[in-house]
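Structure first, sequence second, as always.
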């Protein structure tokens, strides 16, 4: 839940140009934010593309608010929201909350995080506020944002080897996951949506979204669009990631090699140290015996 006093400051306040036209995206931040214009331009430029592909349109402006510090971010999004989060969208209120780049990890891209959150809002408009599976929602957001940490297969490959793939329906609770499990959930969500695009096409994805807008369940939406229910779709997706990503963990071979070499070095060092101690002990015993003679 977004803190109510914050909402009162910006809701209902639209920025207009000289012709009196409302902007689709508006920014609000307490401090000067050098990337503000770049992010604003990126969102405004990509909005028509995402809107046309998923069917969601904005009737009112979307407000993007930049939190200048972690404390400020927590004051807005609440203490229950996961610490690993980098942004939040409130689709029913047309609000996006982003962390300032100053408090984001190095790998994070503010532009892509903003696109991710905008996709959530547009999807909500497209489905007319009807429920959407979390994996589909997050997967679509990553698909359009292209966030490298999530649009990858690094953790999926390891999860396949360790047999720890998260069932798609369990991703519904992703906001309660610890960071590593959440990252795996986002990667799975992305690959599930990518699988839909690659094997059934963008029109099928748009049709599934339309079915959600009619209040259809996941099983109904999938069955009526691609001829698979949720169980069969998940089975096909699992075979897809198993074939495509199973051995991707070997891409980190150089990392594992250095770890292996370090372990071998430590074992050798400890073995040499023990041998030296035993040698010194033996020499001392021999010296003691000579003194007795």
């Amino acid at each position: 839940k977004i803190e109510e006093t914050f909402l009162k400051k910006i809701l209902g306040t639209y920025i207009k140009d000289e012709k009196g036209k409302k902007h689709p995206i508006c920014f609000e931040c307490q401090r000067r934010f050098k990337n503000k214009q770049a992010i604003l331009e990126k969102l405004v430029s990509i909005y028509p593309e995402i809107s046309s592909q998923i069917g969601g349109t904005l009737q009112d402006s979307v407000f993007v608010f930049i939190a200048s510090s972690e404390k400020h971010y927590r004051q807005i999004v609440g203490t229950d929201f996961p610490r690993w989060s980098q942004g939040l969208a409130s689709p029913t209120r047309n609000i996006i909350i982003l962390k300032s780049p100053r408090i984001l990890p190095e790998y994070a891209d503010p532009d892509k995080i903003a696109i991710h959150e905008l996709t959530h809002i547009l999807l909500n408009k497209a489905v007319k506020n009807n429920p959407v599976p979390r994996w589909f929602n997050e997967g679509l957001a990553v698909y359009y944002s292209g966030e490298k940490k999530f649009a990858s297969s690094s953790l999926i490959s390891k999860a396949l080897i360790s047999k720890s793939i998260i069932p798609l329906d369990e991703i519904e609770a992703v906001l309660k996951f610890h960071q590593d499990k959440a990252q795996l959930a986002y990667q799975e969500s992305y690959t599930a949506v990518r699988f839909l695009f690659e094997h059934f096409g963008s029109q099928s994805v748009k049709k599934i979204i339309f079915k959600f807008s009619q209040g259809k369940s996941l099983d109904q939406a999938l069955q009526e669009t691609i001829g698979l229910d949720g169980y069969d779709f998940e089975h096909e997706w699992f075979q897809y990631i198993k074939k495509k990503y199973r051995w991707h963990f070997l891409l980190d071979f150089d990392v594992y090699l250095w770890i292996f070499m370090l372990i071998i070095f430590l074992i050798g060092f400890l073995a040499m140290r023990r041998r030296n101690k035993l040698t010194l002990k033996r020499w001392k015993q021999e010296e003691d015996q000579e003194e007795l003679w």
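Margin note: The longest strand covers residues 62-67.
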